[in-house]
Amino acid sequence: MKPPVRTMSACVAVFALLASAASSIAVANGHSKNTITLIQLSDVHGHIHPHAEIFPDGRISQDAGGIAKLNTLINEVREDNPNNLLLAVGDTTHGGAEMLFSLGDLIMPWLNSLDIDAFTPGNWDFGWGPRVYRQRFTDAPPPPLAPNNRTTIAWMDGMPSLLEGQPGRDGQTCNLATYTNPDTGVKSPFVPAALCHVTKANFPTVAMNLYNFNEYAGASNPAQPLGPLVHAPYIIKDVGNARVAIMGLTSDVVPQQAQAFNTSFRFTMGYKEMPKNIAAAKADGATIIVVLSELGLAKNVQMVKEFPEIDVMFSGHTHERTPEAIVINHSDENGGGFSLVTEAGEDSFLGRLDLKVSGSGKILDYNWDLIEADEYVEEYEPVAEMVEAARYTFLSEEEGGDPQCHTFGVNAFPFGTGHTLCDPLDAVIGHTEVTLKRFDALEDVANNVMVDGFKDLAIAVGDPDSQGQALSNANTLSTTNGFRFDAVILGSNDGYSGEITIGDLYDYYPIGAATGLAEYTGGRVKLHWEGILNNVFDPNPYRQRGGWFLGYTNNMEFDLQLNDDYPTTISAGKRIASVKIDGEKLDDSRIYTLASCYPHGNPVDEVCRTAGATNLRFITAIQEDCDNPATFSNGVESCQLDVTRDSNFNIEDPVNTKNIFDPIRFCNGNPSCQTGPLFLKVAPNNFVHPVDALRRYFDPDLEDTVVNEVEHGLGRVKVVGADPDDPRRGVPVSQYGGDGIVQPTQGIGPEWQKREFVIQDNQNMQ
């Protein structure tokens, strides 16, 4: 089938159209400078096309979200009040298959068309490695002697080269080690974005808590001070009567993710940096302080309490939806007045904050509107055309596409020959009776299904553990990161098709991970689970990592102590009342096999953020079962497995037996050495991606793999003494700093909004 006119290269023309449209909105007559509008774009997560959504009032839409609808809403707000600022809170370039196989590039033409006033990155914007991040969001190379992430990067599939003579085809590389700056004749660790086809952001990125760091020097001197900031801590924008300082706080959890994400970077929470930057901004004449923060809602509310000079906090990371602005009233000792905290969920929402300001630019009143991008919002046509072009090679001919093979692997990170997808994203591979949604911190059906698929594959492979015991329900566990985001899949019990597509699986697992097996003692995994619970429910918001527990398999039962009357001051490490594996109490000394995802770049003793593993090995595909071979620039063949119950798998050891993150071993401590990668590949070339494991589990020819309430429903995690209908599920009220908060379990609904710190005075300004 011949491609349409709008190919990837045509996105450049679409981009020009978009930029023209954004800049052509005329300043209407009669708008008062006393009212300014701040537009919040938050946690888009690469959702370029519409999908199903459940809105806060319970209403279901089959056609919500997507960047074309968001663009329509942005245009409407801008036309309504030209005195506006468009502010984007990160986790934008990561999520779904389209982002995975383009390293986030397929959303960049749209972002660059919006005339974004300021952006702060989220943790997943670092998910393609430091090299991609720097080329996308910075204008300068890393500091001297920092080799950065010395890997290659995938060419954009089908995009013509921006430099004459470069082939620009999938599989070609632009290796840092071989690039020579044509102006100086010197080899450089920083390759221009044009050469590697990473689309550079045209909008300012701000972050006061992201630092450069020399990995080589730091490895030999851990006490070495942080390097200079990667980005400006804030920028100043004049709008209406106000002079607005826009500050950035990127996510502080990146170091807790795969180490390959953060080489050459160091992160702080930003707490210590905040006072000096507020003072500097006020010295620059700022009348309003706005912070874009990816720390998460709980941390952000607490930070605003402690820094009353912050007027507005646009929060991201935890994917909460604030139907009403959270109002923090400050005491007279802290200067009085109030501050606002809002979070706009994901791509199904746009936040609008109208501020009534005085002649001197101070906030007098406000109105917050969480605007739904539902089925009634029309798609902005130029963006809809861009999305169509971007998805053309991912969709079946029935959906108007021409499916091509896409690869994430050797040219993005140096692990294996890559994970390849050749089937269209709209291919149906399973069904669900239950509507799949990820709104609960403690347990949800989507995560239950994922871990059941991992465990099922691990047992089917049949490899015994190090004790010679065959893998079974009695000694095999599985966990997955308890994400609380991504698209809803509507179940047949609610009157919908219940179809699960390949695209749905990539939405739920948008990382290039391998499927690994590792062994732990029962005591070790229980300690890890307590740590995760503490990350969710610690009464000190600054110690909270996010809003979720983990996903657990159907052979696991948890009883948790999280009741309001349970003493929060002594609950850390004691929140698990009991754990049963296959009906038997967890044995602290027994060896269990954990089947889960292995993010490339992690140490060899860690699976799914669980340290202390032994006997790490990987589930791999047997080459003869692959029917779509693809040849890469290194001459090694890989293939996409047509995953079914009849497919054959192997168990293989890691490629290397050393911990991955070890810059010294390549250079013997010499900081001037720039040879060799910072990371060794660990997973074998033919590693099985989590999506492959799930495709096997969702074999559409098997009726017993339909997702249903009996097999995959809630109940694996129980809260002792909690009313199952309580939306807080027994979460303790924080005692930290008085009336602090605890991360809500099911989004920021009305029950949670009744907490003492929420005051809704001054709402609906006159």
Description:
By secondary structure, this protein is of the alpha+beta class. Helix content is about 20%, strand content about 20%. The strands form 10 sheets. It has a 6-stranded mixed beta sheet with strand order 7-8-10-11-13-12, covered by helices on one side. Strands 22-19-26-21-29-32 form a 6-stranded mixed beta sheet. Helix 1 (about 10-25) packs antiparallel against helix 10 (about 380-390). The longest helix is centred in the middle third of the chain and has 17 residues, at about 445-460. It is globular, with a radius of gyration of 25 Å. The N and C termini lie far apart (about 60 Å).
